[in-house]
Write a structure and sequence with these properties.
The complex is a heterodimer of chains A (about 140) and B (about 80). Chain A is α/β, with parallel strands linked by helices. Chain A has helices at about 10-15, 25-35, 45-55, 55-60, 65-75, 95, 105-115, 125-130; strands at about 5-10, 40, 85, 120-125, 135-140. Helices cover about 50% and strands about 10% of the residues of chain A. Chain A has a 5-stranded parallel sheet. In chain A, helix 8 links the parallel strand 4 and strand 5 (about 135-140). The longest helix of chain A is centred in the C-terminal third of the chain and has 14 residues, at about 105-115. Chain B is about 45% helix and about 10% strand. Chain B is elongated. The chains are: A alpha/beta (about 140), B mainly alpha (about 80).
Chain lengths: ~140, ~80
């Protein structure tokens, strides 16, 4: 059975993009080394990256405008091993979301559901998320 | 930088209230809340956006002098707003 392609969660994708993220070197290196396996981000992760690149709390005085933030994400998705953007027409599934105990889990679980629906493994640095969904995720350092 | 701030009681109460609303000091410490508020008020519009290395398939937003280091917790908090 061929390996499943990867879907990046919000934090890993942003860490790969922004040099100031404490995990930038690891995330950038991992993504560069594994794009050839097939990779994707959910539309929610695309928008999260734009929000973070335009947020002064995150980028300080270096914030990007909307045009440059969108171009940065689109350019990352281009190249020799282009990334897909995953959409989901489904609603949240009870078998997954009924397990949520805190509000921050909702988006994480949604990314797991979206990745699973497209046959992708979600790449995350979130240990709790990886523990909750070991068959659907891969933990990065 | 470590420093000591003398805050009016109403400001301190607001900080405690905001921290509690965001899940307590482990998730939203008073230092983080003060830093956020200062950046919001005093950082102003950027002189220029960050330098972005736009190579197809490999984008890096360079960290300039007035750009913070960011942890996963900061990313989660920003997306939670």
């Amino acid at each position: 059975m061929p390996p499943m392609p990867y879907a990046l969660d919000n934090d890993v994708f942003f860490a790969a993009l922004y040099e100031g993220h404490v995990a930038h070197i690891d995330a950038r290196g991992w993504l560069d080394a594994n794009k050839s396996m097939g990779w994707a981000i959910a539309m929610e992760t695309y928008l999260a990256a734009m929000r973070l690149l335009m947020n002064p709390t995150i980028l300080g005085r270096g914030i990007l405008d909307g045009a440059l933030a969108r171009r940065a994400v689109e350019t990352e998705l281009a190249g020799a091993h282009p990334g897909r953007v995953l959409f989901s027409g489904e609603r949240p599934k009870g078998e997954m979301f009924d397990r949520a105990t805190g509000h921050r889990q909702v988006m994480d679980f949604w990314l797991i559901q979206t990745a699973r629906a497209h046959g992708h493994t979600l790449v995350t640095r979130d240990k709790a998320l990886s523990r909750a969904w070991p068959d659907d995720s891969m933990l990065l350092p | 930088m470590k420093t000591t701030l003398e805050l009016p009681e109403d400001v301190a109460a607001l900080l405690r209230q905001e921290s509690a609303a965001r899940g307590g000091r482990r998730k939203a410490s008073l230092s983080n809340l003060v830093s956020y508020a200062v950046r919001e008020v005093y950082s102003g519009r950027p002189d220029a956006p960050a330098q972005v290395d736009l190579k197809a398939g490999r984008v890096v937003v360079k960290r300039g002098a007035q750009m913070p280091a960011v942890r996963s917790e900061d990313v989660a908090a920003a997306l939670d707003d």
